[in-house]
Amino acid sequence: MASVPAGHGTVPLPSSAGPQRSRSPLALLMRQLFRRRLVVLSFLIMLAILAVALLAPWITPFNPTKMDILGRLKPPTAAHWFGTDEYGRDVLSRVMLGARLSLLVGLLVVVVATVLGTLLGLAAGYVRPLDGVLMRLTDALMAFPDILLAIAFMAALGPSLYNVVLALGIVYTPRVARVVRAACLVVREMPYIEAATALGASTPRIVFLHILPNLISPILVQATFIFAYAILTEAALSFLGVGVPPTTPTWGNMIAGAQQYFQQADWLILFPGCAIVLTVLSLQVVGDGLRDALDPRLQKAK
Amino acid sequence: MTGITRRLFNTALGSAVAVGGLSTGFSAGILGSWTTPAQAQGAASVVTVATIGEPPTLDPVGTTSDLVSIITQHMFETLFTFDGDWKLAPLVASALPQVSADGKTYTIPLRSGVTFHDGSTVTADDVVASLDHWTKASPRGKTVAPLVESIAAKGADAVVIALKEPFAPLISLLAMNNGAAAIVPKSVIDGPGALKSLVGTGPYKLLEHKPDQYIRLVRHDGYVSPAGTPSGYAGSRKANIGEVRFVPVPNAATRVSGVLAGQYQFADSLPAETLPRIKGAAGVKPVIVKPFGFPLMIMNTKTGVMANQKLRQAVLAALEPNDMLLAGLGDPEFVQAEGSIYAQGTPFYDETSAKPYSDHAAGKAADLLKAAGYKGEPIRIMTSVQYEFLYKMSMVAQAQLEIAGFKVDLQVLDWATLLQRRGDDKGWDAFFTYHTFVPEPSLITVLNPSYPGWWDSPAKREALAAFNREMDPAARKAKWVTLQTLFYSEVPSVKVGEFYNLAASSDKLTGYTPTPWPFFWNTDLKG
Amino acid sequence: MLVYVVRRFAGMMIVMLLVAMVVFLIARVVPGDPAAVMLGSAATPEDIAALRGRLGLDEPLLTQFLLYLGQIVRFDLGESIFLNRPVSQALAERSELTALLTMMSVGIAMLIGVPIGILSAAKRGGLIDQTSVGLAMLAASVPSFWIGLTLIKYLAVDHAWFPVAGYGPPDADLMERMRHLVLPAIALGIPNSALILRFTRTSMLDVMSHDYVRTARAKGLPPLVVVLKHALRNAMIPILTVIGLTTAVMIAGAIVTETVFGLPGVGNLIVSAVLRRDYPVIQGALLVVSAIYVLINLTVDLLYAVVDPRVRY
């Protein structure tokens, strides 16, 4: 458990994303977003990591699974920039492959949590009788600390990459659901929704065509943060031995596997650790930038 | 819910106070009794031993876990034990048993005046009850149970075991310190379940057990030692150290750094890579234990693709043990590519029958695969990261088998799950485990037909029975060679090789004898 | 107000019932057999089956759940399979460490978060502000186990300034035990200081935009006095709130930290219980930790309602 999700949960952060009141065109958003140099830089780093992740199978300097028992635990050299691990495998290549796997987990968690959370949130926010039941359910799920709930699910499901996705997806669903519900409650009172209802538009039509588009920005902000936390929590789960199976070189697994050796070979945890920090940090900066750019209140304040 | 929370905190507070009070009381008492003979030792007469984890129990009878034996052998004693050359020697017994000419009746004389931790004296009745309990509760005892005709006291200081047929390994089984035939008071035996209280005859007794924190054993002042020069586990035993404290430290790196920092006086099972650091550090020396054990890839001879003998032979031909050993243990000093189940220098060593171990002629595996009619069925191999070296070996095995043309489904489970799954013959084709050195071949688990893998061909059954019936040492050796020949033609498992254990001890700890199950009587702390 | 409290309390009870259900179900569908683990590697399937029967693991699921609820109502968390003692006792034995660790980490997180947050707000937009906001974000991005491993390597192994692991010998006094917790508390405190820092900063900024602060400034009071005397006092309530919530989060964070440092606390117990398939311990620990979590959340909410009349209830 590395951090408290800043900006959501039960903490009423003054700057938390509110429902978007005026839709700004993409260009305007981009301009808002990129006004800060740090955000631009983080966005570029994110793109770079994403590119490495996508291209990993073709661009790693060595075969990341090729063992060289005699060349094990060698410190960084000109040939092996990040050194070699306890099987003599190239650490740089494995960190690159790790990007692919860690990002995959993060992205899939975002998809699961966003889809489930949005559906639940819309149901709770628009269908009054469901509201109480669904919110109690999210309350119950949020009554567990993230990592604890994830561990419990992983213990039940058994270690596998997709089970990690499922467990973390369930863990983060309530966060999305809450935000969507809150925003939905505001939007549904808008005059144009009333107008649509009066015109006899069907419920699905109203929900998906009129309400949902207005919720895109808070969902987007949430998704960015969940992406970051999913990567952190996956690393923690794998570190504890209850996450992705150790044969899969996610960053967390690389650090977990190096525990025995890092006191002699600190490069084994240094590089995967830096990869995690860099990814999570740039995601958080971009998420913050997005929130600021999308939050009309803050815009006025500036 | 507030109730639970409040109660929890109250209990926490209460128990913290209680434990604090108790431990101060105890240590004061202990110090009081020690200060006279060894004033200088003071607080130093505690040896802290870092073990690989929390033992599942402290009952020595019901489990064959090595970790349990390491700790409990200080508290409990068996009738017999092994000396430095792995020969049998008496412990609670006063001498080796007299065996009748037909090999069916064992008369075991007992030492007189041996006392339990509760102060009572060991009687022949206690011994009979303990042995009877062993045949019902111990996995080892249960294998003997069907052969036992009767166990009875003979007078006040002897016990007679009558067998239905000759069974040569009996005394070795009685001497093992796991699944142990521990001698306990009749009153603590509670059916086949765990002992009611942990009372034994050993040089140390249990003071306090806090799971995941420590197990404190203190000197048993009324201990009555066997006679003779100490050799291995045999000979006289003296508790020089006032308290032996076992601390579970599951993380190997922590065990290493802790022993280097002087937090522990002894640390067990360390990664071979840390040998240079231990050698280079002041105040600490490495302890290399050999023989220690051998990793095994056990195959399912009962159900699934591996029931095909030809396919198992192909696996044997495809695996290159040297790579596996080196990847697993990391240092050539800690491994030996040895096919004979017993390594060179031990009585049951035989090279010829183990030839197939080193025969990896090009194309041999492929020919066998073809002969087996293998159609690319995935081989489900179970392994666990809890034993790092096994996990690494299985990674290498996977790579080698795939090169040879197998399809491998490597399943990484936690050890608990692996133990559960291996009981189901439909769920797996092979798994990795290791076997600690045992002085008597019939104690090797793979030979037990009910052990997962279920090796039970008619030829093997017959050879094992013949081996167990044979009482003459030379003839036993020949019969063992027959068994090992079968092991290499039927290939129920692959013996990967020999590996040794690295431990580290403080320079201050003297008199320590390296054994697979470290013990601390007869050791002392100086300085 | 009373109605609000009662309603929140009733809501909490429902949540806890759901929590109990989730907890029970999760622990039951876990693969792996406690009996096999307890008996060691040479156990035969018959031995394992016999032990399962003795431990009641063969009862139908519903019977097991009703039994479980009945126990919870009587504040009985069951008996640990592996540890041979009541779960409540196992938790109690380990709670001192986790409580102490949480307190020390909160202390560290506060010491870092609050002053820097205030400074950052006072110098809004300046170099200090930007740096500290950046650092906060960095701190929130670092896995705590990575910080822990790094601290062990450089401060405990390379320089023996701190103990490598553990909680000291059984007779260690409080100071000695706390010394064992310094590195873990730092590893846990740093990532969590980020939230406190950011929250302190935003609350301060919020308060400082109010008229009375502007008035104080206009009166010509020194900036430091304005910040500390006028603004901080009013920003303290939300700051204390977030500290409360951080405490709740850290109890969970202790799971990872205790594992890294080999500390026998509640978090370590949970991870070991999962590996040992100790069902009652998994259930009990999950239930108690989430109960504490819910309770802290509720307390914070109620406190908030008490001090801030603007909160609707």
UniProtKB/TrEMBL annotation, chain A:
Topology relative to the membrane: Multi-pass membrane protein
Primary location class: membrane
Domain of life: Bacteria
Keywords: Cell membrane, Membrane, Peptide transport, Protein transport, Transmembrane, Transmembrane helix, Transport
Transmembrane segments: 38-59, 101-127, 147-172, 267-287
Region annotation (Disordered) ranges: 1-21
Subcellular location: Cell membrane
Boundaries of every ABC transmembrane type-1 domain copy: 103-287
The UniProt record lists the keyword Repeat: no
Similarity-based family: Belongs to the binding-protein-dependent transport system permease family.
UniProt name for this protein: ABC transporter permease
Source organism of this protein record: Azospirillum endophyticum
UniProtKB/TrEMBL annotation, chain B:
Domain of life: Bacteria
Compartment(s) of residence: Periplasm
Segments forming domain Solute-binding protein family: 88-438
Keyword flag Signal: yes
One Pfam family cited in the UniProt record for this chain: SBP_bac_5
Assigned keywords, A-Z: Signal
Chief place of localization: periplasm
UniProt key word tRNA processing: no
Similarity annotation: Belongs to the bacterial solute-binding protein 5 family.
Name this protein carries in UniProt: ABC transporter substrate-binding protein
Originating organism: Azospirillum endophyticum
TrEMBL record, chain C:
Main location: membrane
Keywords annotated in UniProt: Cell membrane, Membrane, Transmembrane, Transmembrane helix, Transport
Domain spans labelled ABC transmembrane type-1: 95-304
Domain of life: Bacteria
Membrane-spanning parts: 9-30, 97-121, 133-156, 181-200, 239-261, 281-307
Cell compartments where the protein resides: Cell membrane
Its membrane topology: Multi-pass membrane protein
InterPro entries in UniProt: BPD_transp_1_N, MetI-like, MetI-like_sf
Source organism of the structure: Azospirillum endophyticum
Record's protein name: ABC transporter permease
